[in-house]
Specification:
There is one protein chain. With 307 residues, this protein is an alpha/beta fold. Helix content is 38%, strand content 17%. The strands form four sheets. It has a seven-stranded parallel β-sheet, with helices on both faces. Strands 6-13 form a two-stranded parallel ribbon. The protein starts with 8 loop residues before the first strand and ends with a helix. 45% of the residues are buried. The structure holds NADP nicotinamide-adenine-dinucleotide phosphate.
Length: 307
């Protein structure tokens, strides 16, 4: 089948970030044309990836790139793990997701020909602190700040489904790779031999290798799936087991625990987030036929830190 240029185009909002960079590379390799939506004009001027400027709030000429594309992927949002969650910071975290998703869906509604699929980021924080219970896409939402934000964020994206587009809410776990995200932040103490579990270390961590996340998004573009999809590896780990695995991968000791009260004092409400977690299963990803390249933490970390 000969694809017209637009039918092979994927637009990635917030695509210049940690996940977007890996996704763009995977999309290009799979033969797609990639257009990023960024608030910074000319951020990725050179190379095969094109950038269209938007402000994440308003309508504008950027909307024309959405017309008739193979997929639109929404990764836009202010960084969550930065600074204390003051009311002002929470507002930035929320508004940057809700307003940008709303602007994107408004743009999609104006497109002469709708994209085949709209994939919008959400997070496993949707489920709230989950204890030891295994959660899948049918589990109910939590009630804390992040859970309510994820529910609202998903609701904004689902307007595209009501407009007739196949819409996926991607509930992403902790994305692992060495050049960004949570792992990059953890590396410094671990490399000094000062790494270790946070609090009791019993809290679950649902993670996904960045390469698998890009692979799953490519798979979902071609699949017929819609609705919520957990983007997590099949084998979540406790924080203690994660610390041990990271210590093994870096060949460093990982016995220096960080007491829970220190995290709470230092980070406030966000510290509480690190001390609780969710044990989330990728039920719908597996049912749809996605095969994880890195199902377990040791295989993921050893690939990430392979010299
Ligand atoms: N990384 C993880 O472990 C993880 C886990 C769960 C969920 N997620 C979600 O997945 C999405 C992508 O994550 P990421 O790790 O790639 O994040 P990232 O590196 O921070 O990239 C997000 C991008 O969003 C854009 N952005 C920031 N503030 C914005 C605003 N006010 N309005 C519009 N766009 C804004 C930025 O692009 P420009 O500066 O180019 O505009 C930024 O590059 C986020 O929504 C995040 O919450 C990530």
């Amino acid at each position: 089948m000969n694809l017209s240029p637009r039918a092979s185009r994927v637009v990635v909002a917030g695509g210049a970030g940690f996940i977007g960079r890996a996704l763009s590379a995977a999309l290009l390799e799979a033969g797609y044309e990639v257009v990023l939506l960024s608030r910074k004009a000319g951020k990725t001027k050179s190379g095969p990836v094109k950038t269209e400027t938007w402000d994440g709030v308003s309508s504008g000429s950027w909307q024309t790139v959405l017309d008739g594309t193979a997929a639109v992927v929404n990764l836009a949002g202010a960084y969550i793990a930065e600074g204390r969650w003051t009311p002002a910071r929470k507002k930035i975290i929320s508004d940057s997701r809700l307003f940008s998703t709303r602007a994107l869906v408004a743009g999609l509604s104006c497109a002469g020909s709708h994209p085949a699929v709209f994939i919008s980021a959400s997070a496993v924080g949707y489920y709230g602190p989950g204890g030891n219970e295994a959660l899948d896409e049918n589990s109910p939402p939590g009630q804390d700040f992040l859970a309510r934000l994820c529910a609202d964020w998903e609701h904004e994206a689902q307007v595209a489904q009501a407009l007739g587009m196949r819409t996926i809410n991607l509930r992403i776990g902790v994305v692992l790779d060495k050049d960004g995200g949570a792992l990059e932040k953890m590396l410094f103490p671990f490399k000094l031999g000062l790494g270790g579990p946070l609090g009791s270390g019993k809290q679950w961590m649902s993670w996904i290798a960045r390469e698998d996340l890009a692979g799953l998004i490519l798979h979902l573009i071609k699949s017929g799936v819609s609705g919520p999809v957990n983007a997590v590896a099949p084998e979540p780990v406790t924080n203690r087991d994660f610390s041990r695995a990271l210590g093994r991968a870096l060949k460093r000791p990982a016995f220096m625990p960080v007491p829970g009260f220190v995290l709470r004092l230092a980070l406030g409400e966000m510290g509480g987030l690190l001390l609780s977690g969710q044990k989330v299963r990728p039920k719908r990803a597996l049912e749809s036929g996605y095969r994880f390249k890195f199902p377990d933490i040791d295989s993921a970390l050893s690939a990430i830190f392979r010299p």
